[in-house]
């Protein structure tokens, strides 16, 4: 039994189906519940984008507020710190004599490195980080992580029939916090900002119930490629990305729907796409820092470069491609974009605009309300031909895609995709040839 433990919340902002939290509650007499917002999230980084955009930050703040409310019946509090988690946790360890640290294992390379830094700095403490962000634990996988299949199809065939552990309930008891632990104010967001989604475990669970109590899962596969329409996809991704609901909870609700209504291709396809999420999470664990390298997990980098004007036009939706412009404007205004839209703008970024894919991935990191490090960077590698795609470097025909998914131009008109169509590159006077 530990005298004082610390649970570090990250992309797991819920109380239910939290193996690490359940373990901490069973093993500690007192417990500090911590969430850290890093100042560096809100400043432009290496690729001119921020790691945290305002749409996602609003969702996170909603989730933190709801989590704090959920803790009140336990007579507990969520401790908020606006600083590096390594420094915040180090200070709490020194000040309160913490003797055990818990977290849900995270897929991100930098999050894993922070965990390792804490282990190196405090080797005498107990560190526990069970898998709770994935459907399966690493021990359940039928292969060593170093032998992760090179393609999703190979992965799916090996894990699709694995038994799934039941999601666990929230702890009945959470040990009290020591007296005197203080929170710090976190940054806010603009008052005019509106959102399609409300963060938090309760909101996520309500959305799960609404979706699976409807007829929507029965024809999901038929509409999932639509460019817009709230009910044309499951919209679970924001709550999954923040960890307000777990993948196992989604599958549990899916199985309940299938028990009531029967299984068909569409309901299966929901599980199929959760397996894609699963694959990219283990892909991130397997490849680590290679998730962010220009050459990805391949031996050579794509023949692309960085053209500031093209990058800006893509971000602002002023390229020569109206469908791409509409997608990028929707993303910027709402923080959300359909799966089909994401594929199209990424393909355009790499092929038509010939830009370094990492700048596009970083822009998505800033803009997406449902940003997930493994899924985002894994998918961008896939589209750029430096990841898990066995075909490599696949390109979408934008004209054909527009005819198929927006034949009457209604999506382009809705998001004003053709209002400011500019030439791909401008010619400066300094580039004019000298004649005579």
Automatic annotation (TrEMBL):
InterPro entries (alphabetical): Cry_DASH, Crypto/Photolyase_FAD-like_sf, Crypto/Photolyase_N_sf, Cryptochr/Photolyase_FAD-bd, Cryptochrome/DNA_photolyase_1, DNA_photolyase_N, Rossmann-like_a/b/a_fold
PROSITE patterns linked: PHR_CRY_ALPHA_BETA
Photolyase/cryptochrome alpha/beta domain boundaries: 3-135
Cofactor note: Binds 1 5,10-methenyltetrahydrofolate (MTHF) per subunit. Binds 1 FAD per subunit.
Named cofactor requirement(s): (6R)-5,10-methylene-5,6,7,8-tetrahydrofolate; FAD
Keyword vocabulary terms for this entry: Chromophore, FAD, Flavoprotein
One family name in Pfam for this protein: FAD_binding_7
Organism superkingdom: Bacteria
Ranges that cross the membrane: none
Biological function: May have a photoreceptor function.
Protein family per UniProt: Belongs to the DNA photolyase class-1 family.
Protein name, per record: Cryptochrome DASH
Lineage: Bacteria, Pseudomonadati, Pseudomonadota, Gammaproteobacteria, Alkalimonas
